[in-house]
């Protein structure tokens, strides 16, 4: 029944997440060619179901679950990133699997507290934060004469 299908889906999603984390998230790539290296990618095909990850999420879940309520339960996370479950790729099953197996954590006081904490750390390190300023440029490597990494359209920074 649906219970066995759910456990199989969860195991498959979790396995894909582990491969993705190991092979993409936890790795640094020096170039697009490094990222797309077939010698690295081809062995992964035996570890994940590519169609499950790239096919339409709603349709892929439909292969396991007939009840649309179960499918809705397992793909509402697509909405987190502004996608429709009917068009989102199945890779978003990894979000649901993560929530189920790892839980969902929220900062005490809400995400506003994260922003406030980062700002406090930056200010303590001597950073001046200007909000509402139009960004004129972003410099990836600051000039030797400057300690900044960008500037506003008013010439500040």
Automatic annotation (TrEMBL):
Q: Which InterPro entries match?
A: Amino_oxidase, FAD/NAD-bd_sf
Q: Which intervals hold domain Amine oxidase?
A: 39-141
Pfam families from the entry? Amino_oxidase
Annotated GO molecular function terms are: oxidoreductase activity
Membrane-spanning residues where?
none
User: Can you name the source organism?
Assistant: Chlamydomonas leiostraca
Descriptive protein name: Amine oxidase domain-containing protein
Gene3D superfamilies linked: FAD/NAD(P)-binding domain (3.50.50.60)
């Amino acid at each position: 029944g649906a219970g066995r299908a759910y456990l199989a889906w969860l195991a498959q999603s979790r396995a894909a997440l582990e491969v993705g984390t190991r092979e993409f998230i936890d790795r640094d790539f020096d170039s697009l060619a490094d990222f797309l290296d077939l010698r690295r990618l081809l062995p992964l095909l035996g570890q994940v179901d590519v169609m499950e990850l790239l096919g339409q999420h709603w349709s892929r879940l439909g292969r396991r679950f007939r009840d649309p309520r179960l499918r809705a339960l397992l793909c509402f996370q697509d909405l987190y990133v502004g996608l429709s479950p009917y068009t989102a790729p199945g890779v978003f099953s990894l979000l649901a699997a993560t929530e189920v197996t790892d839980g969902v954590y929220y900062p005490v006081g809400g995400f506003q507290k994260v922003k406030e904490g980062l700002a406090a750390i930056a200010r303590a390190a001597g950073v001046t934060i200007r909000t509402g300023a139009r960004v004129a440029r972003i410099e990836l490597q600051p000039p030797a004469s400057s300690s900044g990494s960008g500037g506003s359209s008013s010439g500040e920074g």
